[in-house]
């Protein structure tokens, strides 16, 4: 009787599952990578400057909204820090996919808050932001294995 073993290295079939955008060397693939990176930079700037900064400097418009919800300044600063961290993480290759998923979760929460506390005013904004975040999470999903290796190495 002979034994059949499975090699421990990645097979060609499993490497084909990796994100196409991240590995393509064609001109079209290069344009897709540039477009995706540009989208990441734009979203990062949005989260850091337009969303987190007003909360972190306690701009009156942000403070008023959090006071109306009853969350006060603590809730405002926590959300601001989460948005700042997510915006920065969108630019760090090993964290891109995880950051996009985390920010999507934050946007689901923002959607619920807009519906419950503000009668749906601006409720579409978080939903619109989820679309490019989902694209980033999917396109950069290959980095999740790298992140897992880093975490396991540190543990």
Rounded to an integer in angstroms, the radius of gyration calculated over CA atoms is: 20 Å
The number of E-state strands comes to 0
Order of helices and strands: HHHHHHHH
Helical fraction equals over 70%
Overall form: globular
Strand content: under 5%
End-to-end separation? 41 Å
Largest sheet: none
Could you report the average pLDDT, rounded to the nearest whole number? 87
Structural class: mainly alpha
Please identify the oligomeric state: single chain
Unreliably modeled segments: 1-20
Continuous helix count:
8
Provide a quick synopsis of the model:
This protein is mainly alpha-helical and 155 residues long.
Please characterize this protein's 3D structure.
The chain is mainly α and 155 residues long. It has helices spanning 12-15, 20-23, 27-56, 60-69, 72-89, 96-117, 124-139, 143-154.
Topology readout:
Layout: H1 12-15, H2 20-23, H3 27-56, H4 60-69, H5 72-89, H6 96-117, H7 124-139, H8 143-154
Helix pairs in contact: 3-5, 3-7, 4-5, 5-6, 6-7
Key structural traits:
single chain, 155 residues, mainly alpha, 8 helices, 0% strand, globular, disordered N terminus
């Amino acid at each position: 009787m002979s034994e059949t073993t499975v090699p421990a290295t990645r097979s060609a079939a499993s490497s084909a599952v990796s994100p196409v955008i991240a590995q393509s060397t064609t001109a079209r693939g290069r344009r897709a990578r540039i477009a995706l990176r540009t989208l990441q930079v734009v979203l990062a700037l949005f989260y850091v400057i337009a969303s987190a900064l007003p909360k972190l400097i306690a701009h009156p418009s942000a403070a008023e909204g959090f006071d109306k919800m009853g969350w006060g300044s603590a809730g405002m600063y926590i959300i601001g820090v989460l948005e700042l961290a997510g915006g920065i993480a969108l630019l760090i290759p090993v964290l891109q996919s995880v950051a996009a998923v985390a920010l999507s979760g934050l946007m689901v929460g923002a959607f619920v808050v807009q519906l419950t506390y503000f009668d749906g005013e601006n409720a579409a904004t978080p939903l619109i932001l989820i679309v490019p975040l989902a694209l980033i999470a999917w396109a950069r999903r290959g980095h999740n294995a790298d992140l897992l290796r880093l975490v396991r190495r540190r543990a």
